[in-house]
Structures are given as structure tokens and as C-alpha cells.
Amino acid sequence: MVQRIELYRHFGLLIGQAFQIQDDLLDIVRSRKELGKIPFIDIQDGQHTLISQFVFDHGKPHDKEILNAFFGKEIDDNGRKVLSRLFESSGAIQYAETEIARLIQNAEDLLISSDIKMEDKDSWMNIVALLKKRTS
User: Fold this and answer.
1) What is the rounded distance in angstroms from the CA atom of residue 116 to the CA atom of residue 71?
2) CA 99 to chain centre
3) Residue 40 class from Cβ within 10 Å (0-12 exposed, 13-18 middle, 19+ buried)?
4) Count of CB atoms situated within 10 Å of the CB of 12
5) Rounded to an integer, what distance in angstroms lies between the CA atom of residue 112 and that of residue 108?
6) What is the pTM of this model?
7) Cα–Cα dist 8/115, whole Å
8) What gap in Å lies between CA 14 and CA 103, rounded to an integer?
9) 19 CB-near residues (< 8 Å, 6+ apart)
10) Which phi and psi (to 5°) does residue 116 adopt?
11) CA 125/CA 120 separation, integer angstroms
């Protein structure tokens, strides 16, 4: 029983991390209409994410200055365009997409290699499929 609990705990951690990074990414790459909320709200609210951390860790000094200038401040349409270019050119978007794919693949591999019943695997894989299709 402990082994099964550990399997589900690990699966939940992988899927939860993928979901959160995906949520942070959608906040950057989707429009207000697609999201149903203002894009870049995480940056505007001063919420640090894997994506912003990527820029702080790997961005050019000028990129870091730009991000710092917007962090925790109201962002207008022009600011959103500047930040979009920044996250794209710095590689932060690609990094987030790669991390999401890696986490999802690890979750799938974990389920496939487990000894749980096929119908249970299918149920959990449906959750993975929903995450893969998520756009808002």
C-alpha cells in the first residue's frame, strides 16, 4: 500500500509542477480574451515564477533590468509587448515548454511502468491528456 501511495504522490508532484509552469506560461503567451484575465498578472503582482527566474539566472544584464522595471508594477499593453519579446528572446518560453514536456513525460513513464490496473492507468492518463490539451 505504501508503494502505491508513493506512486500517486510522485505522479501528483510531476503533474502539479507541469500544471503550475503551464499556468505561468499561459499568463505570458495568451491574450486577455483567451485567458479570461489580464496577461502578465504574475509579473504585475510581483509573483516570482520559473519563467521569471530563468531570465534572472540566464538573461543578459539588460533583460534583467527590463524585467525588474516591470516586476510588481502595473503593466500596460506596450509593457506586455516588451515582456513578450523579452521572454521569447531570452529562451524563457522555450525553457518552460521543455520543462512542461519533461514533467509530463516523466508522469506518463511512471504510470506506464507501474503495476496498477490498466483501467486505473487509463484514468490517470486522461488527466495527463487534459493537461496536454490545456490552452487557458
Assistant:
1) 45
2) 8
3) middle
4) 13
5) 6
6) 0.93
7) 12
8) 6
9) 131, 134
10) -75, 160
11) 9
Residue 66 belongs to what H/E stretch?
helix 61-70
Task: For residue 51, give the C-alpha cell.
Answer: 519563467
Amino acid identity at 89: S
Query: All 3 cell numbers of residue 93?
Result: 518560453
* Residue type (1 letter), 12: G
- pLDDT tens string, the chain, 136 residues long: the values are 669 899 999 999 999 999 999 999 999 999 889 888 889 999 999 999 999 999 999 999 999 999 999 999 999 999 999 999 999 999 999 999 999 999 999 999 999 999 999 999 999 999 999 999 998 8
